[in-house]
Amino acid sequence: MSFQTHESAAIHILDWLHRAEDALVGFVVSTTTGERGIVKEIELDEHHGLCFTFEDPLSGFDIVECGMVRKFYPVSVIKQREVGREVQHRQS
Description:
By secondary structure, the protein is of the alpha+beta class.
């Protein structure tokens, strides 16, 4: 593959990452394992592709603030996304 082909592929991957962030961050999702929460972050994983982490809306606190490690899930486990955004998505 040429450099231009790699560059084009990288641009497409980042484009899909940003689309996933826009479509999922701040929304409540349900997973195939029955877990439910507000998507907090989307990341690229070299083994699983796009992965997400969420906050349990019933817990009342952010997992990171408690010093716990967040668990990332592949986006393929998302069963359903709620219609309305729960929290305002902040661009970094």
